[in-house]
Amino acid sequence: MIRKLSKVQRKGQVTIPVEFREKWGLEPGDMVEFVETEQGVIINPQEIVAMETLDLIGEALKERGISLEELIDDGREIRSQLIENEYGITADVR
């Protein structure tokens, strides 16, 4: 485990050490998540947050017996209905 120290600046800003930015592919403007734990704070890159969220969605779908394909098909059908209702255009649903 690599450990690095950074100083908290006057406005609460902290520089993420270059080793971590390079390892996790963090670029200026990237979003990170701060998670409070009993031991302190964990910083997660946005890609980690997105993958965890997708995993939770996948688990919820599985619990309800819905496959990803069914979800996509339902989404297409709903979009088609919305387009037809809003614009009077009949969309071709695959």
Describe the 3D structure.
With 94 residues, the protein is mainly alpha-helical. It folds into two domains: 1-63, Pemi-like Protein 1, Chain: D, CATH 2.10.260.10; 67-94. It is built from three helices and two strands. It has helices at 18-24, 46-63, 68-87, and strands at 32-36, 41-45. Strands 1-2 form a two-stranded antiparallel ribbon. The longest helix has 20 residues, at 68-87. The protein starts with 17 loop residues before the first helix and ends in a 7-residue tail after the last helix.
Q: What would CATH call the architecture of the largest domain?
A: Ribbon
Mean pLDDT: 87
CATH topology of the largest domain: Pemi-like Protein 1, Chain: D
Amount of helix: 40-55%
The largest sheet is:
2 strands, antiparallel
Helix and strand pattern: HEEHH
- Rounded to an integer, what's the Rg over CA atoms? 21 Å
CATH class of the largest domain: Mainly Beta
Distance separating the two termini: 49 Å
Strand order of the largest sheet: 1-2
Write the layout of secondary structure elements.
Layout: H1 18-24, E1 32-36, E2 41-45, H2 46-63, H3 68-87
Antiparallel strand pairs: 1-2
